[in-house]
Amino acid sequence: MSQINWSWIQSEPYQLFINGEFTNASEGGVFEIINPATNETIATGSDGTHGDIDRAVAAARAAFDHGPWPRMTGKERGRYLRRVADLLEANQEKFAFLEAADVGKTFARTLDYALPQAIDGFEYHAAKARELGGEVRQVPEGTFFNYHLWEPMGVVGEILPWNGPLMMACHKVSAILAAGNTVIVKPSENGSLTNLELAKIFAEVDFPPGVVNVVAGQNRELGARLVEHPAVDMVSLTGGTETGKKVLQQAAGTVKKVALELGGKNPNIIFDDADIEDAVQWAIYGAFADQGQICVSGSRLLLQQPVYEEFLELLVDKVSQLKIGDTMDDDTDVGPVITPAHEKKVLDYIATGQQEGAHLVLGGKKVTTTPLDKGNYIEPTIFTGVTPNMCIAQEEIFGPVVTVQPFQTDEEALEIANGVEYGLAAGIWTRDVDRAIRTAGQIRAGQIYLNSYFSPAMLDSPTEGHKYSGVGGAGIHKYMQEKSVFLRMK
Ligand code: NAD
């Protein structure tokens, strides 16, 4: 708490960053940046328009086609990225504070987890810029010599969600730039503050004009403009599955590369031979960290019948002790959800669960005690009596709600785990290595945690979602394209 300084928030509107310069939005509008813990306006930002997206795309296009960035060596590009990492590190507390104030994450967890991850993105990709790969292939009978190269995609539009804006921007922008692309970052209308602050670091590092641009705004169509723009070579979206479907349609007209990291409804399977105490602890973290607003949250707990009662009793006991509180307090476990509209959506899901016949064993209500009543606080919520066909077992709630389902056999656990449209992540708890590996192999999801929930972010690990959870690859090569060169040997 002592490290926090509210004057880190600037009083004048945060500006867009286009072509190496800070600028007001072309129509002069501003939007309010609101703290979900109080619903008070804490800052304002220039409200970007389609015209601003067009300006940023023109700058990024010119920087890619004619500027030095894609023509530099990886080593030279890496030097810029390392400087971003250094400046982020020097300002860690400010960034953790801004992220907490803007999107309702707790300051302590943001400082402890998101900031090191964000810094690591730039450090990792600074080194990675020097080893982008390529391959030589033998051609039959020595008639041809063939090599293939990885090249940047060109101009990349990076569209971000509100639920981890700083870490996600840092991981993605660092990879995009290391690969030699130029980029337009389009933060979420509900989480742009740290991306706008990050633009100040981009300015200080003095990237060549147009290499990195940040255009925020309230109009959800800003993203669509980027996707449909003929001068954008690739669009990468992290967001909801419904948005991903729209992006695929919008991209069809310009046949551009699309990478989508989308929603999840992730099972966390507890087998009867698991270390129950350990599993309960991680299950709580998996389901309620950031109020369940994490794409890989373990929002469906599947408990094998012999340990069902023991696990549930411990779970309810420990979850009821979580401290709901101000995001800036060090001992807060559960903060607010992002907006009043999202709060309503989560509460509507809780009502639906009850109407569907699920049993609400804990929580389920908006917090109405002062001063938390001003913010978007929902009690950590546990449902039992959940059957696989219920809405609350199928749809991504993206709030502090966990459903609990019993199962008898390994086959039944797999059927429930795989019986949703999503395929992002899963947890598996067992002391039996064969069972762990066999189950991991049979779950249709891109990330599996064995005897854990969540993992350290591995920047080149292929964590692409399966099924409706994503498409388009992971790591730096997601932002690159291959070229194959054939030389005829005379
Ligand atoms: P969202 O889909 O509402 O918005 C994401 C971004 O897309 C925003 O910047 C928004 O302005 C933009 N957008 C909206 N409509 C668009 C359109 N038609 N064309 C282009 N852009 C458009 O998602 P959100 O509520 O900000 O974020 C939460 C969602 O993101 C959850 O579903 C979560 O699971 C998912 N998510 C996934 C991952 C992952 O790695 N798979 C990571 C974080 C969040």
Class computed from helices, strands and strand pairing: alpha/beta
**Which ligands are bound?**
nicotinamide-adenine-dinucleotide
CATH fold description of the largest domain:
Aldehyde Dehydrogenase, Chain A, domain 1
- How much of the polypeptide forms β-strand, as a percent range? 15-25%
From the N-terminal CA to the C-terminal CA, the straight-line distance is 72 Å
Which CATH top level class of the largest domain fits? Alpha Beta
The average pLDDT value, as a whole number, equals 97
Q: Estimate the helix proportion, in percent.
A: 25-40%
What count of structural domains?
Answer: 2
Q: Which key phrases capture this entry?
A:
alpha/beta, 14 helices, binds nicotinamide-adenine-dinucleotide, six-stranded mixed sheet, Aldehyde Dehydrogenase, Chain A, domain 2, 22 strands
Describe this structure in words.
By secondary structure, the protein is α/β, with parallel strands linked by helices. The protein folds into two domains: 257 residues, Aldehyde Dehydrogenase, Chain A, domain 1; 188 residues, Aldehyde Dehydrogenase, Chain A, domain 2 (3-Layer(aba) Sandwich). It contains 14 helices and 22 strands. A seven-stranded mixed beta sheet has the order 14-15-16-13-12-18-19, with helices on both faces. A hairpin with a 2-residue loop joins strand 1 and strand 2. It is globular. It starts with 15 loop residues before the first strand and ends with a strand. Nicotinamide-adenine-dinucleotide (NAD) binds next to helix 7, strand 10 and helix 8.
